[in-house]
Amino acid sequence: MRVPEKLLALINDENSFFISTHINPDGDALGSSLALSLALESLGKKTVLYDRDRVPEFYRFLPAHEKFSASLPSNGQPLILLDCNEPGRAGLDDVVLPYSAVIDHHETVRDFGDIRWVDPHAAATGIMVYYLIKELGLEITQNIATNLYTAIAVDTGTFRYSNTNSELLRVCAELIDSGADPASISLALYEAWSERRFRLLIEVLNTLEIVDHIAFTFVTKEMFIGTGTTAEDTEHFSNFPRMMEHVEVSAFFRETDGAWKVSLRSKGSVDVARIAERFNGGGHRNAAGYKITADIKTAKEELIKEIQDV
User: Fold this and answer.
1) For the whole model, what pTM was predicted?
2) What are the structural domains, with CATH classification, of the chain?
């Protein structure tokens, strides 16, 4: 994987960076951002690590997670935007940015960024950051390795998805040699749920409806209140219905203020990134999302129509 020369020059020439990732951050967003921040600071650089939303409780095992802040800097640092390629996805619409670089692997591409390193063939932004760190000649410490391994594991379904290949596994073997512990990371990711999160999952699965190989589930504000949970507790919920043999698309609807945020997951030939783009969203071939203002019945009907068209 080739790292852009302009990105290397930016890192070598500047002394301070504003690193940001998308709202509602997942493991790839968090792990790749933390790894890059730690690596740049080992070079003597200063970094400000920003996300509008807090680090979800179940990702607080990540080394240096407390570095994230919801406060915007005021000193005009160049931006490095990770795991998304437009400032709106990071809650930066109204922020004046003197210079920006994008590191991302989503198929839905925007034209933002003075430097753009967008590789849809990369399994995770974390593996792109790995190659950047290697190109800079920096040591991959245990903390960096743990963050990168987590980033890659999350976006490959812990090496179950079709984006897993031999190159990726060799990278992860090196991360393990550098101190990443697969067992403890997997335990933190998949076997450390709170009881309230598990009860929310039960309620969500009880909303299951299957129409033409599409599995629909949803969560309402009332369900969050009743279980004492928040939106961050729903990560991975969209994956569960996809486990069923004949389900080709899983659509998970999360109620927000006057709208629904929709997470799509697919297997086989259905490209949900194309479907999400029709609603001004985006993502990957088998994992994408969008937002729609409609009642739940209409939102489902419109999604069925778009899936049938695609």
Assistant:
1) 0.92
2) 5-189 (3.90.1640.10), 195-309 (3.10.310.30)
